[in-house]
Structure formats: C-alpha cells, structure tokens
Amino acid sequence: MTENLRSEDYQRRADTLTGWPVKIVSYRIGETHYCHIDNVSPGATIARANAASREEAEEEAIAKAAGRLEKTRRRS
Amino acid sequence: MQDYAHPESVVGTEWVAGNKDNEDVVVVEVDVDTGGYDEGHVPGAIGWNWSEQLCDQVVRDILPKAEMEELLASSGISNDTTVVLYGDNNNWFAAWAFWQMKIYGHDKVSIMNGGRGKWLEEGREISTEIPTPGAAEYSAAEADNSLRSFLPAVQEAVGGGVDMVDVRSPEEYSGEILAPPGLPETCQRGGHVPGARSIPWGLACNEDGTFKSREELADLYSSRGISGERPVIAYCRIGERSSHTWFVLKYLLGLDGVTNYDGSWTEYGNLVGVDVERGEG
Predict the structure, then answer these.
(1) List of domains in chain A
(2) What fold does the segment set B7-143 form as a domain?
(3) In chain B, domain spans
(4) How far apart are CA B232 and CA B153, in angstroms?
(5) Residue B25, CB half-sphere, CA atoms under 13 Å: how many?
(6) Chain A CB contacts of B93 below 8 Å
(7) Which CATH topology does B148-268 take?
(8) Measured between CB atoms, does A9 come within 8 Å of chain B?
(9) Among B166, B180, B89, B237, residue whose Cα is nearest residue A20
(10) Count of CB contacts below 8 A, A vs B?
(11) Is pTM, for the whole model, over 0.80?
C-alpha cells in the first residue's frame, strides 16, 4: 500500500503565448512540480512538463506550448 | 446537487472523498491529456484512455457493445454499480464516457463536479497506485442511438426544424482556424453547419471547472436561441466537447430531444459538395 499524497501549491493563471490565450496551471505532488498549459478555447491541454522546481516545469511547458501554437495558422 | 433537472447525475468532490471506501462505487478518470492519470489520481480511481478504450480502433465509431461490456466488467463495474466519472479540462472526456455509458443503458452514472482540476486545487488526497479491480459481469443494453445524430439527420436539420449548436471555439466556428490552437487534427474546410448557433461548450462552466447553476445555464442557452421547444443537435470537432454540452442540456437543464453528432466537424467539414457557412454568424 503506497502512501497517498496531495497536490500542493496549486496555481492557475491566464497568459498569452504567440498570440493565443492560454491557461497555465502548476502544482506539486511530492517532490515533483507539474505544469500544464491549456488553450483557453476550447480548453485542452497542449503541453505539460514536470521538473524539480515550478520555474523549470513552467519553462519547459511554455516552450512546448509555444512551439505547438506557432503552427496554428489563422486564415483570412 | 443544486436544482439541476437530474441532480443525481452530478456529485461533488466532497461526496467522492466520503465514498472512497464504498464498494458499490467505482470512480473512473478519463482525461483529454491521457498522461494526467499517471501523475496521481483520486485514490482507487481507475483510468480509461479515451483514444484507446472509448472508441472503436478500426471503424470510426463509439465502443462496440461487446467491448464496452468488457471494459466495464474488467473495471469491476456491474450493471448495479454506481460509477463516478471525472477528468481534466472541466470533465470534457468524462462527459464523453458518460454519453457512451448512457447509450449502453447504464443507470447509475454521474460526473464529479469540477473534475480533476477541482480535486487537485482543493488539495485532496491523490494516489499513484493503479488499482486492480476484481472482474465483474456486465450485460449492456443494445445501443440507444436516439442519443446520437448521424450525418443524414444533420443534413436534414439544415433545412430547419432543429436547433444546431456548434460548441467549438468562435475561431473554429467562423472558419478562422481549422483546428483548436496547438492541436493537429484538422479538416478540409473551415466554418460551420449552415444555421448552427455558436455556443462554446466551456461557457457552461465556472472558472474552477464546476458547472454553472441551472439558472445561469438556462439564461446562457435561451439567450442564444435554445429554448428546448425543438430538437437540439450538438456538435464540435470529433464529438467529445459536444457530449459535454449534450450532458448540460439533457441532464442539468432537462431538455428532451438532445443528441450528440459525434461525426461533428471532422466529418461535415470534409464532405464533398456540401455547403458550409463562414463568419461569426
């Protein structure tokens, strides 16, 4: 039986990446920090990362998200 | 749960926490991001992968009856089990699983209000342990396709008499983009089904992922022309976001005659020789 954990330091904020609105969620489970980035509309996770610190997890997730969002082309 | 039309279809995080040892209850996590479950989940919750376990792997279709029976039985779910579904992104794919379970006649199934995000935000107990449920027996009903719409019904609806609800983002509805930002699946044409109204699915949720009140939901849909006096067909890109709106309209507001068009825009937007509309509508 493994010991159950809790998520801690849960944060969410709105931001803009490469012109697209996103929601950045981060939290810690045990010693691991997680970051998920959602496109606000429709609200699907487009990138996530985990690392030893919140800053590292967010930096990695933001880089992944920006790369994916850049490929979305607006059509006139 | 509030004064929803079918209050038994939604349970709170507190209820789930209080029933974690209830042997009559099986909790299932279904995420958009299929890796979320492995980070940690509601203790005892089973994880279903929507892309592998909730659709036919050959034909584009929902899970066949026999495979649904196998999935439920192997998850320790029998016909009498109370199933609680939850997931990330405001229960987007939890609603997809709910819709399929209703198609196959499961009675006692509900959605955990606020989903995975609310559970984490509240700092509730989580586990990385993968449960190994004992096998159960499950006998599904024949698929109730009155909960679905197929392409012929949608094409007929273009002529009137039915309210079409496009639950995608405004940019997808207008044709400005062909797929949600950052996601790859696309279609040949941007736009929407002629006559469809744009009511993005996420408008039904609060910031914390919980469903808005019945009064707020009634205002939202009635202000955009959905009164429930006519049949409603909800669609999105592949039918999952629209299963969320289907759930809201049918179970929270109590509208009859609501169906989910799971072919959605990836079917309609790829048809040859069929008119689409563009612009904000």
Answers:
(1) 7-69 (3.30.67)
(2) Oxidized Rhodanese; domain 1 (3.40.250)
(3) 7-143, 148-268
(4) 11
(5) 19
(6) none
(7) Oxidized Rhodanese; domain 1 (3.40.250)
(8) no
(9) B180
(10) 105
(11) yes
